Automatic annotation (TrEMBL), chains A, B:
Catalyzes the stereoselective decarboxylation of 2-oxo-4-hydroxy-4-carboxy-5-ureidoimidazoline (OHCU) to (S)-allantoin. Belongs to the OHCU decarboxylase family. GO terms for molecular function: 2-oxo-4-hydroxy-4-carboxy-5-ureidoimidazoline decarboxylase activity. It catalyses: 5-hydroxy-2-oxo-4-ureido-2,5-dihydro-1H-imidazole-5-carboxylate + H(+) = (S)-allantoin + CO2. It comes from Marmota marmota marmota. Keywords: Decarboxylase, Lyase, Peroxisome, Purine metabolism. It comes from the Eukaryota. This is 2-oxo-4-hydroxy-4-carboxy-5-ureidoimidazoline decarboxylase. SUPFAM superfamilies: UraD-Like.
């Protein structure tokens, strides 16, 4: 998909395509449409990230709370978004042993209790061995620092989803 | 449901219950959870509305763009949210004649083209005869005024959804 196509979309098409760039937050894609036209992937992504950065802390925490646990209840129930299902699968989180799953459940619960939002990680950049290690490490971070770290992961996830939608070459398709 | 129950919810339960108070914007419920405890329905609603009011204009437009057209494509495809389906049905918008539907489709398209968001109306406070009249009237309003009007309708819809969830008596259940 090239940027001319993106810039020609009405808001309904745009939200259909980009509504889950930020997990379960179509509001953000719907807001970003106001900023069209977009020059390239980086320009489009910049508007998603600027919207996140401008939210009050409660809104930033709200974004995180729209994310599922890794290897959690939603994955077991089959109610993940298609994007999240693929990402968790690519990290091997859909084929954990019962023991690995229980360990993650326990860590996820501790993390949620400590920070008031779920542990968010760009799973495609990780793997089943690294996820619990990283969860344990971040569990001991300070809340303000951890909020920044988690939003950084939201942006990594969003970047990879945009690359999937636009194709790796899209960053070189300049309209300028 | 009383407010003690609401205030005891973790964020997952809270978003499951209140995630569609603002149509397809679970982010807002997820953000509002940060403001607990809530004293009563008005207090809870105040936080939803304050979040909306504090968004930049693009975010407010984004909320509107997460709403379906009245008697539109989504209703015909059966992809409305349960709440929206009930509301459109209660206004008689699910049993329009072909002619009435075509008239609304045309007006909805004109409205979207003029304002960049769909026509939003608290359907439960209207009916099939009043909807196209109100749409025609608002089609001629100034954009800044129309944005305010439309957000007022979002708040009316949210209020009625909260009353449904909490019960009409909830406004008198004070924890203070």
């Amino acid at each position: 998909m090239n940027m001319e196509k993106v810039n020609s979309m009405d808001f309904g098409e745009f939200v259909d395509v980009f509504g889950n760039v930020i997990e379960r937050c179509p509001l953000i894609a719907a807001a970003v449409w106001s900023q069209r036209p977009f020059f390239d992937l980086e320009d489009l992504e910049k508007h998603f990230f600027a919207f996140i950065d401008a939210l009050p802390q409660s809104g930033q925490e709200g974004i995180l709370r729209c994310h599922p646990d890794l290897a959690g209840r939603e994955q077991q129930r089959g109610t993940l978004t298609a994007e999240s299902q693929r990402e968790q699968s690519s990290a091997g989180l859909t084929s954990l042993s019962a023991e690995e799953r229980q360990q993650l459940e326990k860590l996820n619960a501790q993390y949620r209790a400590r920070f008031g939002f779920p542990f968010v990680l760009a799973a495609r950049l990780s793997d089943r061995a690294a996820v619990p290690r990283e969860l344990e490490r971040r569990l001991h971070c300070q809340p303000a620092q951890e909020l920044r770290t988690a939003l950084g992961e939201v942006k990594k996830i969003g970047h990879l989803r945009l690359v999937d939608l636009l194709g790796a070459d899209s960053s070189r398709l300049k309209l300028r």
